[in-house]
Design brief:
single chain, 353 residues, alpha/beta, TIM Barrel, two-stranded antiparallel ribbon, 47% helix, globular, disordered N terminus, binds coproporphyrinogen III
Amino acid sequence: MSRKPADPSNRQAGKPLLAVLRGQALSPPPIWLMRQAGRYLPEYRQLRQDKGSFLDLVYDSDAAAEITLQPLKRFPQLDAAILFSDILIVPFALGQNLTFIAGEGPRLSPILAETAIEDLNPFPARLDPIYDTVRKVKAALDRTKTLIGFAGSPWTVATYMAAGQGSRDQAETRRLAYSDPARFEAIIRRIEDVTVDYLLGQVEAGVEVVQLFDSWAGSLSPAQFEQWVIVPTARLVDAIRARHPDLPIIGFPKGAGGKLRAYARETGITALGLDETVDPVWAAKELPEDLPVQGNLDPLALVAGGETLQAAVGRVLDAFAGRPHIFNLGHGILQDTPVAHVEELLAQVKGTK
Ligand code: CP3
C-alpha cells in the first residue's frame, strides 16, 4: 500500500487544537473527548448492531471512518476527531489472537506470561486497514478540525499482552518485570518498534497529532515507572521525531500523580494529558508554564450533569485560564453519559451558555 506524506504546510491553518499544541493559550480552549465515538451515541450503537462486532467495525474502514466522524456531526463545536481503532491492534499485529467479549472486555491469546514474544507469528498487514480509515476521515474532515491518531504506550500494551486481559493492578505484568527484566525489556522493545511503525503509518496517512494512552501508568513504583514508562516513551518519541520533527505528541500517563513532572520533563512529549485525580490548580502551578495540558473533567461529573457539571467545568476552565489548555475529560466518556450533558458541556466551554 502506498503511503502519501501529509502536507505539513496545511497542518496548522486555522486549527485551534494545533495552535494550543504550539504553545498558544486560547479562550475558549479547543475541546475533544476521549472515547468520543462510542456506545453513549445512539448512531454508534445502531451501526455496531448492523455491522457486528467491534473488531468488524474497526476493520471496515468505511464504517470506522463514519464512526470517527459521528461525534463531530452531532457536536459541531468539537475541535478534533480521534481515529476509531483500539490500542490492542498492536498486539493483534504482533500475532496474538484478539476478541472482545461483550460486558467483559478484550481477550488476547496466547498470553506472554506463558509464551515468548519471539514465538508469536507477526501479521504487520493487520495495521494497513487502519491507515485506510485515516485517509477516508482526512478527506472528509472540515479544515478547522484536527485529526488525532493514537497508540497505547508500550507499558500499557504489555500489561494486556502478558495477562491476556485487563487486570485490576497489573500484578502479573509487574511480577514479570521484576522477576525477568531482560525478558520484559525484549517485550517492551518489540511493542515499541511496532508502535513506532504504526504511528508513522498513521501520520503518513494524514493524522496531525498522536496521543499515547498509558492507562496503567499509575500502578508502577517510581523506579519501575522510570524504567518501563519514561524510558520507552522517550525512545518512542525520539524515533517518531526523527521522521516528523514537528509532530505534536500528547502523552497521557493516567494515574501518574506525583510522577507527572518527571514524565513531562524526560519524555519529550509536546503536551500532557491529565486524569481527573489531578488537581488542576496544582497542575497549573507546578507544571512548566509553556507545557500545553489536556483534561481533566471527571467523566462522572459529565454523567451527573446540571449544576454539578457546571461547577466542575468551571473549576477546570478557571485553573487553566491563560495557559495552553485543551479541554477534555480525565478519562474516556462513560457509556451511560446522556448526550444532552455533552451538549451542556460544549455550550459552557464554548461560552454559548
Ligand atoms: O477515543 C476514541 O473515541 C477512539 C477510539 C478508542 C477506543 N479505544 C475504541 C473502543 C480509543 C482511543 C481506545 C483506547 C483504549 N482501548 C484504551 C486506552 C484508554 C483507556 O480507556 O484507558 C484501552 C485500555 C483500550 C482497550 C479496550 N478496548 C478495552 C479495555 C475495551 C473494553 C472496555 C469497553 O469499554 O468496552 C475496549 C473496547 C473498545 N474500544 C470500545 C470502543 C468504542 C467498545 C466497543 C464496543 O463494545 O462497541
